[in-house]
Amino acid sequence: MENHKLFLYAMAFISTIFLLSSTISADCQPYGTLICPGGSYPKYSCSPPVTGSTSAKLTLNSFEEGGDGGAPSECDGQYHPNSERIVALSTGWYAGGSRCLRTIIITAQNGRTTTARVVDECDSQNGCDSEHAYQPPCNNNIVDGSSAVWEALGLNQDDGVVDITWSMV
């Protein structure tokens, strides 16, 4: 009988943890709307939890001066050549710069993987101004990669957005 009680307590604990993790994921909701010429966009201060295999959307970004990345990279105040394997992470994943200059591993649906260095934030709260190259804010699940990242993964840059997973190295 004692083992049965222990089993029930363990199952209740596991169920609670599962429900809490589902709630945490569901809590990442937009907190407002940014109105831009041509549309309105949700604003996020959070991103889904980072796991050993975090689902995301890979988008293409130019980190060079005059490119669609806008201002210099947040992490080091520099522009970067697109030949570097570098990324910007959505605001929640950027986490106030705590991932700056750290390496992530990215896996494409074709099975190829590459590493990339985090150099910037893909702003999920602001946009549609010169600092953001007049682009709308990023969604909360974006890994914005250089052309070198796309090439290393064997992806067609004309696709624009592809499903990936990523994790910290």
Q: How would you portray this structure in words?
A:
There is one protein chain. The chain is α+β, with helices and mostly antiparallel strands and 169 residues long. It is built from 3 helices and 8 strands; from the N terminus they run αββββαβββαβ. It has helices spanning 2-26, 91-94, 147-152, and strands at 32-36, 39-43, 54-60, 86-90, 103-108, 113-122, 142-145, 161-168. It has a 6-stranded mixed barrel. It has a two-stranded antiparallel sheet with strand order 1-2. A hairpin with a 2-residue loop joins strand 1 (32-36) and strand 2. The chain is globular, with a radius of gyration of 19 Å. The protein starts with a helix and ends with a strand.
Attribute tags:
single chain; 169 residues; alpha+beta; six-stranded mixed beta barrel; two-stranded antiparallel sheet; 21% helix; globular
